[in-house]
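Troubleshooting log. The previous structure file for this entry was overwritten by mistake, so regenerating from the original sequence record. Sequence copied from the archived sheet and checked twice against the printout by T.R.
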Amino acid sequence: MRKAILWITILCMVLCLSGCSARRSGENNETSSQNEVTINKEITADTKVVDVINDEDFQGFGQYLFPVEDGMPDENMTLDNIDSLLPYHSHINVNTTIDVIRSMKNEVENGETIFYDIYTDEEKEEDPSKEDTGLFFFRGKENAPFAIVNAGGGFSYVGSIHESFPHALELSRQDYNAFALQYRTGGEQEACEDLAAAISYIFEHADELGVSTENYSLWGGSAGARMAANLGSYGPQRYGGDNLPRPAAVIMQYTGHSDYTKNDPPTYACVGEDDGIADWKVMQERIDHLNDLGIETEFHKYENLGHGFGLGIGTSAEGWIDDAIDFWVKQIQDNEF
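Regenerated output below.
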């Protein structure tokens, strides 16, 4: 009898300890799971690029956050090491990259739509290359004018993470509505057609988007600057878009684009003195031609600086975007009188 009682007591103790152990294990797993959620939400320099691309908040457009036209990056590549994805660009700032991605995630988590198709399903079915296009929206003040920013990449990739998202984010923080265009790579003509489609889309959906179509501006760096200049010179209709007003201003960074017309909008241009891709003399010559036609311009050349500097943080060009915004604002003010 005593043995039976002893065994029952031992069995109860074992079951009790097992239950406690299971509860502790469950508690640890729950804590671990919670930590993973927190870690996944926190974007740092060590965050992997593929994790950002595959983030559920970016479903459907995560593949456009970084240049992956030639395939996904190495699974171990972090945000602090994306230079190899952007061979035509320089001075890539990881803090800016982090700021952009965090801002995008916050918008999505707050229920905002940040990516819009510029082509209909029928247009994409007719031309499948139009699948890889769209507009990222960085909201400013409701019914404020809008800007479209076009990143460069030699028409072989779209360097938005360095050359359009940061610009659009800064514009939105100064209360302007800003869009970053994901366009087709491979050629200037197709890219300009996509920009024309984007302008037409915004005009058609202005009320839904909450933007003013008065005094919009076109921005771009390198290849993206060529796109902005072309649409400024000839208008969206020339490239398959609607018959719409030309922009109030064109903002161009480092490009060898030399074509112009007597109807070009006021133009701001900036370039590095040591740019080996876009000679500053070519850029200044175009600006001089516009000046001769009576078109308002502004030109800046920065010392000890090469191609693809983006916002130019930590360089002689730092702060250029504020000058460019001031130039655009002046055109808006002039047009109001």
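Residues 133 and 182 are 5 Å apart (CA to CA). Archived copy saved in two places this time.
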